[in-house]
């Protein structure tokens, strides 16, 4: 069958690969660009050097990039709080309203008018609104389009409500939760197909929103890149936290580590250390890490593998989240032991007690970490079993095949074969 012309709507060019979402998007598109004519329409990356590197990387994998001269507003400073207040008057969640720009909608509308799209792919649920703005309700109903739901966002917002102690913040977060429920109910039902990253999320979509057009393409890992470092010695007492440090669920997990989990570990293992590795840490975290004995912060590192290779275990103390954690897959691919909460490990086809350590919540993590420090051989055996499972289930190659099939089903076999008979092979746009 002929290549499809797929237009991907996204926040920015997902490069460098410094977050789970970027890793997933880049790895899947890099593989599918060999089979289809892929165009990414997005906002400009805020960092100028990063933007240049991203455009070069996408050119290298054969993906056309249409980048509008607008960046998504920052989540800090006085302007951020003014936008939060203004969002009280909007029916859209804050994340949807701030990502839906006239410039990006105009670029999508222009591409549609040129007849260069077989399938629209919203690489995050909020970008369904951009597509709606570009095509209008009638055009959207006639289009074939896919929503990639990296998370069920309303689940994350519900967990924010459960974790928030400040009554004013809880009131605001509850409003965002309800707005996201309404938005997701519309977007997931209206899309030709909604792609979940885990069976758990797909089941939640069916139960909460009545979605019948969902499918699953799990998160994955580059198993050729993330491999065990057999010649490097691990420090059993070195605990690693890995993740984007500008994402609220990760910051909540870091706070749990610093406030309760790691102090309890140090009380029993005085030589224990904690390495926090991730991009864009806020200033308060930099200051706190510098002032806390045993804690080291490594910001915006180019390669996380040296940290995975030398730590005793990866700690995933999440109580807020959705989807599934790529960091767990990366850790197990390198045979790094994992200690996680139930929320941190959800969405992955891994067996607690066999492939990784899972505690019901963060309150049991300190004891689990101490037990792992004292019995490193048991953790190492567990991590090897987890690695076998990851190699079998989570390599990006088969996952790209699965998304390829999703795209072709969404377009429909009849459309593909008709155009193939009528026009022959298509020509790469531009």
UniProtKB/TrEMBL annotation:
<dbReference type="GO" id="GO:0016757">
    <property type="term" value="F:glycosyltransferase activity"/>
</dbReference>
<keyword id="KW-0808">Transferase</keyword>
<feature type="domain" description="Glycosyltransferase subfamily 4-like N-terminal">
    <location>
        <begin position="25"/>
        <end position="224"/>
    </location>
</feature>
<dbReference type="Pfam" id="PF13692">
    <property type="entry name" value="Glyco_trans_1_4"/>
</dbReference>
<keyword id="KW-0328">Glycosyltransferase</keyword>
<dbReference type="Pfam" id="PF13439">
    <property type="entry name" value="Glyco_transf_4"/>
</dbReference>
<protein>
    <recommendedName>
        <fullName>Glycosyltransferase subfamily 4-like N-terminal domain-containing protein</fullName>
    </recommendedName>
</protein>
<dbReference type="InterPro" id="IPR028098">
    <property type="entry name" value="Glyco_trans_4-like_N"/>
</dbReference>
